[in-house]
Design a protein that fits this description.
There is one protein chain. By secondary structure, the chain is an alpha+beta fold. The chain has one domain: Gcn5-related N-acetyltransferase (GNAT) (Aminopeptidase, 3-Layer(aba) Sandwich). It has 4 helices and 10 strands; from the N terminus they run βββαββββαβαββα. The longest helix is centred in the middle third of the chain and has 15 residues.
Length: 158
């Protein structure tokens, strides 16, 4: 994965893995995230962290809509210290979105990933990742999903 140290441009090895229900409950005690992740306890939640560190850099909740052949990103969030101009690590959301795209390809959904964006983030998702608006949802699939994976991942498997 292509996490980048902001100051040096150095690539950082990281891991994306499922979050346990116990870990979700523990997130309630720390102030690293704005969202109440306990609300996502029934969904599949993934965390991204550095390979040599247990600190959670970002989180993403997914729902698998099998009947619609798509993976839906319910919420995605970088930790508070990894937001804005002063963040020390780049590409956290991109790696998480790329991971969702990989899951969507693995399930035979042609990389179909959707989300509902806050109004102020619509242009960001369009310009940064290539999401297309579909009514209240935004989505990527096929070549766009492949380009996200190529940008944020090496050849590793999910």
């Amino acid at each position: 994965m292509n996490l980048i140290e902001n100051k040096t441009g150095k690539r950082l090895k990281c891991i994306i893995e499922p979050v346990s229900k116990k870990e979700l409950k523990e997130l309630e005690k720390n102030n690293d995230f704005s969202f109440d992740w306990n609300l996502e306890i029934e969904n599949k939640v993934y965390k991204i962290r550095l390979e040599k560190n247990r600190e959670i850099l970002g989180l993403m909740s997914l729902t698998d809509f099998q009947e619609e052949f798509r993976i839906h990103i319910n919420i995605i969030e970088s930790s508070k210290i990894q937001r804005g101009k002063d963040k020390s690590i780049l590409n956290i959301p991109g790696c998480l979105i790329g991971y969702a795209c990989k899951i969507a390809f693995k399930k035979g959904y042609d990389g179909f990933v959707s989300l509902v964006s806050k109004t102020k983030l619509v242009k960001y998702y369009q310009q940064t990742y290539g999401f297309i608006e579909f009514g209240t949802h935004m989505a990527v699939f096929n070549e766009i999903s492949e380009s996200i994976i190529q940008k944020y991942f090496d050849d590793e498997e999910i």
